[in-house]
Write a structure and sequence with these properties.
heterodimer; A: mainly beta; four-stranded antiparallel beta sheet; about 0% helix; B: mainly beta; five-stranded mixed beta sheet; about 45% strand
Chain lengths: ~110, ~110
């Protein structure tokens, strides 16, 4: 099992560019979520999904879009990147009713 | 979701027990106490969870007070590799509200 795979690991964007952060899991988990982590802070929830076709906003959703067309994939889209979106992004997945969440290794995004 | 309160940091000597406290005074009856840790800005890693009974696994022990308003994570023989940020989280297991909400956590430094 690969677990939770995030791509890319590093990315530099110019202000105003768009891009998609990829997240895939091979554990057939219903629940997937995206977090961002800024220096010295804990993880903040951006968006989450409880199953294919179902998404909802977390604490800091502005500037990000998500979709969940399959159980395995949960891409995060930055529509128009801003320097304030410079952060480390983590994707996580788990089974509803399950006990353990699995996290990817993170995507380090810099917006200049 | 109930909020948790943790000290900002603590340290302990290698080989000694590390006792990490957490307050969750507004925890609901169906909310579990979870502990995760994050090493060197990697993705968080699940450690242990519990509802009201004390729990032990190969990584740690979790002691929950009888009124469930606080808990302690115990690393019985801390090693240098246990230096990390430890997050105490309360959450329900099922449904859309089973999201993980992270605070700032407690930074544990294990000294030689």
């Amino acid at each position: 099992n690969a677990g939770v795979t995030q791509t890319p690991k590093f990315q530099v964007l110019k202000t105003g560019q768009s891009m998609t952060l990829q997240c895939a899991q091979d554990m057939n988990h219903e629940y997937m979520s995206w977090y961002r982590q800024d220096p010295g802070m804990g993880l903040r929830l951006i968006h989450y999904s409880v199953g294919a076709g179902i998404t909802d906003q977390g604490e800091v959703p502005n500037g990000y879009n998500v979709s969940r067309s399959t159980t395995e994939d949960f891409p995060l889209r930055l529509l128009s990147a801003a320097p304030s979106q410079t952060s480390v992004y983590f994707c996580a997945s788990w089974n509803l009713g399950g006990t353990e969440a699995f996290f990817g290794q993170g995507t380090r995004l810099t917006v200049v | 979701d109930a909020k948790t309160t943790q000290p900002t940091s603590m340290d302990c000597a290698e080989g000694r027990a590390a006792n990490l406290p957490c307050n969750h005074s507004t925890i609901s009856g169906n909310e579990y106490v979870y502990w995760y840790r994050q090493i060197h800005s990697q993705g968080p890693q699940y450690i242990i969870h519990g509802l009201k009974n004390n729990e032990t696994n190969e990584m740690a022990s979790l002691i929950i007070t009888e009124d469930r308003k606080s808990s302690t994570l115990i690393l019985p023989h801390a090693t240098l590799r246990d230096t990390a940020v430890y997050y105490c989280i309360v959450r329900v297991l099922t449904g859309a509200n089973s999201k993980l909400t992270f605070g700032k956590g407690i930074t544990l430094s294990v000294r030689p």
